[in-house]
């Protein structure tokens, strides 16, 4: 059965950049954030790769990326993302950073998806379970609520479609274990953890084909105001804890045993 | 006189190192998403597999190793290999590809120029076929070389180097030969059977030979039945010897495969690039080897020039990080102190030297990309021009040269009109010339003939010098394999970039001819006005300084073309390279600086249209303008030095024994003169003491009333340097504040 797969994905600053919180007029932000190169949020990226993989297995499926981000920044990021797999774009031109309000973001994404007016019986909504900016972990639930979708899976690592249209979903739970659920049918919302797929290589031909559709969509990006809805008392980077020990000629098994013991502490 | 910028006025500073949005605007491809994607794709290969290979010691072998070979599929997958082809041949970029190739070279060389050369050499092998091949040859080889699923990509090498054992291109001295191995009978010829050629050639330092499936080789005629030299295509499966040879023991560009091959093969005459005809029992190649090579190199040299530019710009971030972090980790330097936060950046010398590297990198990149864009403009014009001339029965060679030369008058007329206000131009005539393809071709061709060798010469020559500066700014760390950004490898590699595809002397020689083309000189005069106009609304760029330097240069050229030395010998002549070559060097400085200023002007004009740049555009533009100002002043200084040396250096110094020296006044004469007209003795330069003894020096001071104009221009130029050191101080301040990434985005 072909699916209509919608992937929600925002932007995050390139992880190699220097990320320094600063207090803005309305809310905190990152120093020089607009000047920093961005990437598609890594959690959303996993969801996108999984979506493309699922679409390949089910001919006739379509992948759409719904993205709430500053249009100009999104365009730059798409120069890489669009080369990786075929998809269409629904762009919302609005603020996107670690201090956006999850409720407002979820609302905007939900409304944008609803506007596509897809028949819900084969819709799967993907997104990141977390975010590399400042994940509240609730955006996808809010999107589900807005769309009236009751089947929501969090921290997903795998989806396996069965004959008849039901599918198994593997979610991460405590203790390094997975919980496997069977969902009878779409629609469903899956907030992805890392999945199992590697980042697809760049393929300019795919990019060229994508961009012919994506660029007009980007030009038509809907200006979207996203209120913060909250006040921030302060913002700071997590403290770095670095305990380095240099070892030489230690067998890998021994290193693994030590790490496992450390984790148990 | 008003200062160009007030030193006390607070200026916006550079917030982050210029990113893709800025570069796209500077180099004018913000609307080309195909190119923006290509950049990202190539960058992923450069800073991924290529960087990992360099970091793991992949450069430490002359051999073409499996690890190096594994880069080729990476190039294929990323679209690097197919970027040269048109969509119908398996590529994905429409239209001319010079700018795309330049971007590929730039991105790969950011990490390793050998990787860039490996990619470039594939395109170089195809280039003779692309530029001059028959439609059948183009269809076969371009398609086979485009990666496609389920088949091996056909890879090529370009074989010209002659004569062995030395390394280097001498187009006019071919050693390889083509002979007729079999001449068909009349009946066979009538039935379409071709002559079979026996091609023998030995190559030296041939790139891609470790894996090439075909070779485009230049050979001379070794048989009276072959009329001229030509280029031929040899395939590895052809009959005969296709010996890849031993690896060249080169010291640089180790991620490209080079060896010294030997070929002795039999191929049909249809392998002659561009085809042939049979006249009077002879094979007559449609193109001799030098005409093919000329068409090829004038394009591919631009990419080589940009490799060095890329390396200079790639050095900035690692150097800033090194300077800032230099003292961190020492127990004696505590966080929060200037020494901890700024490290070596507390010292002005460090920031100023780094700025000079940065300015040189920006200028050379601007020049290289401007040239690549020019070739993209020129390519379609060239094809149309050829068709138009062919329709008039003019089919290349000397006939074409003469026909184009006749059109130079109109080209100059157009350029003169272009220099006037639009309202003052004769509209109909101007429009007619603007739409005349041949006239426009003549203008662009004249410009390209200067910009291409200038890019190759200046970017790699001066770039090599500045790359050494970059290494030295890393201290001892710079000459270790651990040095971030592989700076020492990059420095060594610049020597090859300055050498291959025509060493510096070849570029200077070409410029010494092309820069005196009256069409180029008319264009150049317009550029002086263009720089003055830029200066009028944006004085902080140094455009006025540059315009003054350009004026001095063109005055000097005019002078040298007419002047003679003290012995009566003509100064500006072909074999007087002590005159012509420095003038070519001086011109390069001017062209690079102009290109840099124009790019920053464009950023300032178009940047506000990109909301992503809203935050830091002012600071970025200010910083880049300051770099322009620095570079313009540096260029002006070089031009002033060179021109002065040439204008005065060929005149003989007057001596005390010359007849005119008898007019020197004695001390007694001076006293008498002073008594008559108080103060008049001060107007006398030379005096003679008691017993006719002159002052202790070489002779009377040299005075050249005929060179007053030069002296005025030079004095004006020196005064025009006003403000550039202030620009440097301001940019230095930015350098201590700019935010850099937490880590380099490729391994070390």
How does this model look, in words?
The complex is a heterodimer of chains A (265) and B (748). In chain A, helix 3 (102-116) crosses helix 4. Chain A is 30% helix and 26% strand. The longest helix of chain A has 16 residues, at 42-57. Chain A has one domain (4-235): 3-Layer(aba) Sandwich (Rossmann fold). By secondary structure, chain A is α/β, with parallel strands linked by helices. A nine-stranded mixed β-sheet of chain A has the order 11-10-9-12-8-1-6-7-13, sandwiched between helices. A two-stranded antiparallel ribbon of chain A has the order 2-5. Chain A has a two-stranded antiparallel ribbon with strand order 3-4. Chain A is globular and about 55 Å long. Chain A has helices spanning 42-57, 71-81, 102-116, 139-147, 204-219, 252-264; strands at residues 4-8, 11-13, 21-23, 28-30, 38-40, 62-69, 88-93, 123-128, 152-161, 167-173, 177-183, 188-192, 222-223. Mean pLDDT of chain B is 93; it is low at 1-6. The longest helix of chain B has 44 residues, at 348-391. Helices cover 54% and strands 9% of the residues of chain B. The interface between A and B is medium-sized, with 31 and 34 residues.
């Amino acid at each position: 059965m072909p699916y209509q797969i919608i992937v929600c994905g925002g932007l995050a600053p390139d992880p190699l950049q220097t990320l320094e919180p600063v207090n803005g007029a309305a809310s905190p932000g990152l120093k020089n954030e607009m000047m920093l190169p961005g990437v598609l949020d890594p959690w959303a990226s996993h969801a996108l790769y999984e979506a493309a993989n699922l679409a390949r297995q089910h001919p006739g499926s379509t992948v759409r990326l719904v993205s709430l981000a500053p249009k100009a920044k999104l365009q730059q990021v798409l120069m890489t993302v669009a080369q990786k797999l075929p998809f269409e774009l629904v762009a919302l031109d609005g603020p996107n950073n670690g201090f956006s309000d999850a409720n407002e973001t979820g609302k905007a994404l939900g409304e944008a998806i609803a506007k596509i007016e897809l028949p819900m019986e084969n819709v799967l909504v993907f997104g990141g379970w977390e975010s590399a900016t400042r994940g509240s972990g609730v955006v996808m639930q809010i999107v589900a609520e807005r769309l009236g979708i009751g089947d929501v899976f969090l921290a997903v690592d795998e989806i396996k479609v069965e004959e008849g249209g039901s599918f198994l979903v593997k979610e991460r739970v405590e203790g390094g274990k997975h919980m496997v659920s069977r969902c009878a049918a779409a629609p469903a919302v899956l907030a992805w953890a890392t999945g199992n797929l590697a980042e697809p290589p760049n393929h300019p031909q795919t990019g060229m084909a994508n961009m012919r559709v994506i660029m007009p969509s980007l030009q038509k990006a809907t200006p979207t105001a996203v209120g913060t809805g909250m006040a921030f008392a302060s913002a700071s980077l997590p403290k770095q804890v670095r305990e380095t020990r240099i070892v030489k000629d230690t067998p890998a098994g021994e290193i693994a045993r030590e790490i496992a013991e450390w984790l148990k502490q | 006189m008003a200062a160009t910028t007030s030193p006390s006025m607070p200026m916006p500073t550079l917030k982050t190192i210029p990113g893709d949005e800025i570069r796209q605007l500077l180099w004018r491809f913000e609307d080309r998403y195909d190119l923006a994607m290509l950049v990202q794709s190539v960058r992923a290969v450069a800073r991924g597999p290529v960087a990992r290979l360099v970091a793991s010691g992949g450069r430490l072998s002359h051999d073409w190793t499996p690890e190096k070979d594994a880069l080729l599929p990476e190039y294929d997958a990323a679209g690097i290999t197919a970027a040269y082809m048109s969509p119908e041949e398996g590529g994905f970029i429409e239209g001319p590809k010079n700018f795309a190739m330049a971007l590929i070279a730039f991105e790969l060389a950011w990490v390793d120029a050998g990787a860039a050369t490996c990619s470039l050499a594939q395109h170089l092998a195809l280039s003779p076929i692309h530029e001059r091949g028959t439609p059948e040859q183009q269809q076969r080889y371009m398609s086979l070389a485009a990666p496609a699923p389920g088949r091996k990509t056909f890879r090529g090498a370009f074989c010209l180097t002659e004569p062995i054992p030395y390394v280097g291109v001498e187009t006019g001295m071919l050693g390889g030969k083509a002979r007729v191995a079999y001449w068909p009978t009349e009946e066979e010829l009538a039935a379409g059977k071709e002559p079979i050629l026996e091609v023998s050639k030995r190559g030296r330092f041939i790139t891609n030979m470790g894996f090439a499936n075909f070779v485009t080789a230049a050979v001379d005629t070794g048989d009276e039945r072959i009329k001229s030299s030509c280029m031929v295509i040899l395939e590895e499966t052809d009959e005969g010897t296709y010996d890849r040879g031993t690896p060249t023991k080169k010291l640089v560009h180790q991620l490209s495969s080079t060896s010294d091959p030997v070929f002795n093969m039999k191929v049909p005459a249809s392998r002659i690039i561009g085809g042939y005809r049979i006249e009077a029992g002879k094979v007559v190649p449609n193109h001799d080897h030098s005409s093919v090579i000329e068409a090829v190199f004038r394009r591919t040299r631009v990419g080589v020039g940009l490799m060095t530019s890329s390396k200079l710009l790639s050095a900035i971030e690692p150097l800033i990080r090194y300077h800032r972090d230099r003292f961190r980790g020492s127990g004696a330097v505590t966080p929060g102190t200037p020494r901890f936060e700024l490290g070596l950046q507390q010292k002005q010398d460090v920031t100023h030297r780094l700025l000079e590297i940065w300015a040189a990198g920006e200028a050379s990149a601007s020049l290289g990309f401007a040239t690549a864009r020019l070739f993209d403009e020129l390519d379609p014009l060239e094809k149309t021009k050829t068709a138009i001339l062919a329709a008039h029965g003019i089919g290349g060679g000397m006939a074409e040269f003469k026909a184009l030369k006749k059109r130079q008058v109109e080209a100059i007329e157009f350029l003169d009109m272009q220099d006037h206000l639009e309202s003052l131009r004769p509209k109909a005539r101007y429009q007619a010339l603007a739409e005349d393809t041949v006239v426009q071709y003549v203008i662009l061709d004249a410009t390209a003939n200067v910009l291409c060798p200038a890019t190759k010469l200046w970017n790699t020559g001066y770039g090599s010098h500045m790359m050494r500066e970059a290494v030295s700014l890393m201290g001892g760390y710079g000459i270790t394999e651990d040095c971030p950004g592989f700076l020492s490898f990059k420095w060594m590699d610049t020597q090859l970039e300055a050498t291959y595809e025509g060493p510096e002397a070849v570029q200077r020689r070409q410029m010494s001819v092309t820069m005196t083309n009256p069409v180029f000189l008319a264009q150049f005069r317009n550029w002086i006005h263009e720089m003055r106009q830029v200066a009028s609304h944006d004085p902080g760029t140094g455009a006025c300084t540059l315009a003054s330097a350009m004026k001095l240069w063109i005055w000097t050229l005019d002078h040298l073309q007419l002047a003679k030395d003290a012995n009566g010998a003509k100064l500006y002549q072909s074999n007087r390279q002590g005159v012509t070559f420095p003038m070519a060097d001086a011109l390069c400085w001017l062209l690079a600086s102009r290109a840099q200023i124009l790019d920053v002007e464009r950023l300032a004009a178009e940047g506000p249209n990109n909301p992503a740049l809203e935050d830091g555009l002012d600071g970025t533009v200010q910083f880049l303008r300051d770099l322009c100002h620095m570079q313009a002043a540096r260029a002006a200084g070089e031009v002033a030095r060179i021109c002065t040396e040439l204008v005065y250096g060929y005149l003989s110094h007057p001596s005390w024994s010359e007849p005119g020296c008898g007019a020197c006044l004695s001390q007694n004469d001076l006293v008498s003169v002073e008594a008559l007209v108080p103060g008049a003795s001060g107007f006398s330069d030379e005096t003679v003491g008691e017993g006719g003894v002159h002052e202790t020096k070489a002779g009377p001071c040299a005075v050249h009333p005929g060179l007053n104009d030069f002296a005025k221009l030079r004095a004006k130029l020196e005064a025009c340097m006003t403000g550039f050191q202030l620009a440097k101080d301001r940019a230095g301040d930015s350098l201590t504040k700019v935010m850099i990434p937490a880590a380099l985005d490729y391994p070390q």
